Inverse folding.
């Protein structure tokens, strides 16, 4: 009688690697905020926190999540008020 394996047949899928830091382009894809908008928010100090590593700008995924959470609204009046504040909350 052949030995019974507890592993499923075929290759074992590895869990996806989730990066902790993203480039501005990756951050734009992650947040649906244009790269140019992120650049403007960086310059004005109204955007998500970022790090500088040499000549590279990096966004921590946790900082992007916190920024998006800080901009969460429950009605359009709040959204209009948030926009009139110039990006900062």
């Amino acid at each position: 009688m052949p030995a019974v394996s507890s592993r499923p047949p075929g290759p074992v899928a590895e869990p996806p690697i989730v990066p902790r830091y993203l480039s501005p382009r990756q951050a734009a894809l992650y947040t649906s905020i244009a790269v140019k908008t992120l650049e403007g928010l960086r310059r004005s100090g109204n955007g998500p926190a970022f790090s500088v590593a040499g000549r590279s700008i990096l966004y921590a995924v946790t900082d992007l999540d916190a920024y998006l959470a800080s901009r969460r609204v429950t009605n359009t009046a709040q959204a209009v008020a948030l926009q009139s504040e110039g990006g900062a909350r």
The longest helix spans residues 35-44. Residues 24 and 39 are 8 Å apart (CA to CA).
